[in-house]
Write the structure tokens for this entry.
Amino acid sequence: MAEVTEEVKKITDIGLPIAAMSLVGYLRNMVLVVCMGRLGSLELAGGALAIGFTNISGYSVLSGLASGMESLCGQAFGSRNLSMATLTLHRTIMMLLLASVPIGLIWFNLEALMLSINQDADISRVASLYCRFAIPDLIANSLLHPLRIYLRNKGTTWPLLWSVLVSTLFHPPIMVLLSFTLRLGITGVAISTFITNFITLFFLLCYMLYTRTTHNVPEDESRRKPLSPSPPPSPSSTALLGKEWGVLLRLAIPSCIAVCLEWWCNRDTNDVTHVHVAECAQCISLDPSRERARSREAERGAVSGVGSYWASPIDLVIGLIGTILGREAWGRVFTEDNEVLELTMIVLPIIGLCELANCPQTTSCGILRGSARPGIGATINFYSFYMVGAPLAIVLCFVAGLGFLGMCYGLLAAQIACVISILTVVFRTDWELESMKAKELVGKTDHFAHADQTLLNKCEEGNLGFEK
């Protein structure tokens, strides 16, 4: 019990800045929506469509792909294989930048896409305008996601919070200046968003450059700094690069599928608690990944898992209080329409129950990412949300005539199915076996790019990322 308590304290120390950062980001999004509402009903409708489309088609993909480096970075830091952590950062940034190209093309042609499915022409035009000027944000996020994961796995979370907090202070005045003073409208909202993210990126890079130049680093360690260029591979190691990229992709693609499946199903029902829990779970994912690469792998891995579940009751309390006791107050923040308020008061307690299941479910997803098994999470998410939740929601909504309430019941059923399945997987985990696989995956070498051929073959034979 003492070790579990120690683990909870460690997770809390790392997770508090991340939780605060997620809440700051949520408040920034609220300000963005309020600004759209002030511009007019057309801008609000078009902006809402654009935000939903960018989340589904772009940000979810980048976030999911970046999650693939969680396992490699966490285990690399745990085994002190700093070369691998740095190379994983570089390769993930390159992967996200390449993925941003087709996403940007889709955003640029959003208006034609919306009109082809008979969407309102004016709303489609506004949404397309927002998406076109939000394309630079893909570049910012392609750099921010990997840097955040790298620093989070390193245990450096407070600089992340301060960078987001300071940049968020710039966001409202920039948005007001562009949207209202310069009369750019919805275009100003999109521009202010990516400017704010680039400011965050600027502060993070300044911090990393500062820590790089103010710490005495041995010459043979300097190349392992995240901002240092990767050493060029020798001709004999070039053939291994494809296999090493394959390891990263085999973690990134299942992680991307898992994140996208969940975002696409319940993105519009997320509240403050869901954002808070999701961010905390990302810090939870680094603990099992670190511990399974250290000396007491099996024991510490199990303790990390138990400690992770003890870290989530705070989220449950916040969610239940916010969605059940304050359901009327939340409704009146956005509308005075009696019918909408009545529906809100009925639905929010169900959403609170969804969050009750969401806490252990999201925590378990973090554990699976940390133990290099994102494929299992993707499979469970697919069956839970699309084979259980979606069919039940359709039947209750349209056949039984429950409307939106039926959709919420479907989401609740999906969350319950998901949490039961994923908890079963986590509690049946053989941590001794996982620690052996971690050693095979990130056993310390001089250069990850020059990894031993036998090591890579063993990783592949172990079905990395698709545990049975």
About this structure: The chain has one domain: 2-452. DSSP finds 20 helices and no strands in the chain.
